[in-house]
Write a structure and sequence with these properties.
Strand order of the largest sheet: 3-2-1-4-5-6-9-7-8
CATH architecture of the largest domain: Alpha-Beta Complex
Number of helices: 21
Shape: globular
Protein name: Inosine/uridine-preferring nucleoside hydrolase domain-containing protein
Family: Belongs to the IUNH family.
Pfam families: IU_nuc_hydro
Structural class: alpha/beta
CATH class of the largest domain: Alpha Beta
Keywords: Signal
InterPro entries: Inosine/uridine_hydrolase_dom, Ribo_hydro-like
């Protein structure tokens, strides 16, 4: 009997030890992370910070791309592939887009691509820009983000992964695959459309989401230092950031919203009210960590890895092209700061109140404003309710979603004298009662505990240390990947040939335009003398696709042909930021996604020394000269003027236009005696 008793004791002890070992192994697994990003500059700061962390602690498994915010899908996805290739992380899944839609009855079809806010989403990828029009399309906006101010093609290496039609994993596919696989943490550094669609379509999978970390919103935030001088009078109007939000183009209409939440307020409401534990890093905290001059100079001296170099060069060109002299008090650590806070909280998960190294935290009850009072107004602004017997998604008829929804940047409903009556769409508002959700909120960046350091914020030191850490560093940049590559311009020698009719090709960079360009370049120069190309970003491709034109010309040995960039907006719009006409073009397959990537084939072109850059000079209206103003991208009208000057007396130009007539109309409208240089007999050929 004694033997049996001892035997059972041994069994219990051994079993207990095995259970403890299994528990330790489960707890010792790395935190699985999915990053949902709009691929803005501060987003890839955050991405590189995460990629540098110890993979035994933090494993980034997937990236999904916001296609309705600061970058366009085709340019964004290929840049993500290039960054991952540089960092040796081709194992990370990347999702973008999708062709699904939402039916009139609210049925969400598979693979909704997130190209449009939920309130605008129909049964295709074509649609309006109710919220997205707050983001600039050209300089300082999507053009510069898509091209990374010209640095992307100059710096990043190029691997084998790229966007390919019909093969590219969609956003929803990647989210479903990774979240289905087990417990995971979501980092959100952009608009919330993708994840909201996931929650609405697959609510049973939210149990696998351990926590959501969001950079976005403004709860108690005020005017940060740099918007108005601290000594300014109360009548000072901030030049950029105002009140709770940061919609610098929309102060008169909506001083409450921040870009990531304003991009799709209804989606943000779904995420924040999902019941999943959530931490918010709003402007309250990010406004307290501006990129000051001491940090900038320290960063300039601390570029020991490729990833640090890419981040600093990006930050520098932003500073050099900043619209005023307040960069050091107006540009902040946004998404990377949020990632640092998230990682620190996850490392200290035993703390109940989100204690971390980088920010002070506080629990608040908040909601997201999606419409404006009075509710149940049904004034034609709200597709969820207007003209419907049953509201879309079975929303409550007189509920918080039933009021006036801001229709545009200059919505007359929102432009009022009383500040309290202005629109609040996208406002992360602190409220009492059942409509609020208890959320952990970062309120202020913590100071650097090292008082002798020039870096005044604790996160500044971590950011530079992590980026410059020799472990898990980038393998190469473009020039070290291809050490024998030389930036050589190839120009034909026509010798004594008598060149043919002078032609200016006006294109909107669709796939058909590139076929036409190939044809023109193959014709004998004695018949057709292609003098210049002017591109129109008001058609089937976004402005940054001009780089594909440069690469094609380089391949054909025609680096002598100048390329001018046309206006990014159509003419005669009541508000130039409106997408009244371009909204007819699909955002996904067969539309912008395929045009911007030339159906995936653009990656096979050689990389031209010529590319779009944000380099500029005071001579052309910039606030200051950048390092290389000679690399400035010429405008379409400037190229036209230069071609006209080269004409011999009596000569005329034929214009072949394959897209919107915006460039041609601008030429005729702004240049006198245009008819005297355009060939009258053939005039303009429209295709």
């Amino acid at each position: 009997m004694l033997f049996l008793r001892n035997f059972w004791v041994v069994i219990v002890l051994v079993t207990g030890r095995n259970a403890a070992a299994n528990l330790d192994r489960v707890e010792g697994r790395p935190h699985r992370i999915l990053l949902d990003t709009d691929v803005d500059t501060d987003d890839f700061f955050a991405l590189l910070y995460i990629l540098k962390l110890n993979r035994s602690e933090f494993e980034l498994e997937a990236i999904t791309i916001n296609a309705n915010a600061w970058s366009d899908a085709g340019h964004a996805v290929n840049q993500i592939y290039d960054i991952l290739y540089m960092m040796g992380r081709d194992d990370i899944a990347v999702g973008v887009g999708g062709e699904g839609g939402i039916l009139e009855d609210g049925t969400i079809l598979p693979d909704v691509g997130g190209y449009l806010s939920i309130i605008e989403q129909g049964n295709s990828t074509a649609g309006g820009c109710r919220y997205r029009q707050a983001i600039p399309v050209g300089l300082g906006g999507r053009l510069d983000i898509d091209s990374k101010y010209g640095l992307r093609k100059a710096f990043l290496p190029q691997g084998s992964r790229k966007y390919s039609p019909l093969r590219q994993p969609t956003t929803q596919q990647v989210m479903i695959d990774k979240i289905s696989a087990g417990p995971i943490t979501i980092f959100m550094t952009g608009v919330h459309t993708n994840f909201a669609i996931f929650l609405m379509k697959k609510p049973h999978l939210k149990q696998n989401v351990e926590h959501i970390y969001i950079m976005g919103g403004g709860v108690r935030s005020g005017k940060p230092t740099g918007s108005c001088p601290q000594s300014a009078s109360s009548s000072c109007l901030p030049s950029q950031y105002v009140e709770r939000g940061n919609l610098f183009a929309e102060y008169d209409c909506n001083p409450y919203a921040e870009f990531n939440i304003f991009g799709d307020p209804f989606a943000a409401y779904q995420v924040i009210h999902s019941g999943i534990p959530l931490t918010l890093v709003p402007l309250d905290a990010t406004n307290t960590i501006p990129i000051n001059e001491d940090f900038f100079k320290t960063f300039e001296k601390s570029q020991h890895t490729y990833e640090a170099q890419y981040c600093f060069q990006s930050l520098k060109i932003i500073r050099d092209t900043w619209f005023n002299d307040q960069f050091y008090t107006s540009y902040f650590m946004w998404d990377s700061f949020a990632s640092g806070i998230a990682v620190s909280i996850m490392r200290n998960s035993h703390n109940q109140n989100g204690e971390n190294e980088f920010a002070e935290m506080e629990y608040m009850n908040i909601t997201v404003i999606t419409s404006n009072e009075p509710y149940a107004a049904y004034d034609g602004s709200n597709p969820f309710f207007d003209g419907r017997k049953i509201p879309k998604f079975n929303l409550k008829k007189d509920g918080v979603h039933s009021g006036h929804v801001q229709t545009s940047i200059r919505d007359p409903f929102c432009i009022v004298q009383s500040e309290k009556e202005r629109c609040q769409d996208g406002y992360t508002k602190e409220i009492k009662g059942s409509e609020g959700v208890r959320v952990l909120v970062a309120t202020r960046a913590k100071p650097n505990p090292d008082n002798s350091s020039k870096l005044d914020r604790a996160y500044f030191k971590s950011f530079l240390d992590v980026l410059n850490h020799p472990q898990q560093t980038g393998k190469f940049n473009f020039t070290t990947q291809f050490p024998y590559y030389k930036e050589v311009l190839y120009k034909p020698d026509f010798g004594n040939k008598k060149l043919g009719k002078p032609i200016v090709f006006d294109m909107d960079m669709s796939a058909g335009d590139f076929l036409a360009l190939f044809y023109l370049l193959k014709l004998p120069a004695e018949e057709i003398n292609l003098k210049a190309i002017i591109v129109s970003p008001t058609g089937w491709a976004n402005a940054a696709t001009i780089d594909v034109v440069y690469d094609l010309l380089h391949m054909m040995g025609r680096d002598d042909i100048p390329v001018g960039l046309g206006d990014v907006f159509a003419m005669d719009l009541s508000d130039p930021r409106d997408c009244k006409y371009v909204k007819a073009i699909p955002q996904g397959s067969g539309g912008f996604l395929d045009s911007d990537t030339l159906y995936g084939l653009a990656r096979h072109l050689p990389r031209s020394p010529r590319r779009y850059t944000a380099e500029n000079s005071v001579k052309f209206g910039a606030p200051r000269d950048t390092d290389h103003p000679e690399l400035r991208q010429p405008l379409a009208l400037e190229i036209w003027d230069s071609v006209v000057k080269t004409l011999e007396p009596g000569s005329k130009i034929s214009i072949l236009t394959n897209g919107p007539l915006t460039n041609l109309a601008k030429i005729i409208q702004s240049r006198k005696n245009t008819s005297s240089v355009i060939r009258v007999s053939e005039d303009v050929t429209l295709c």
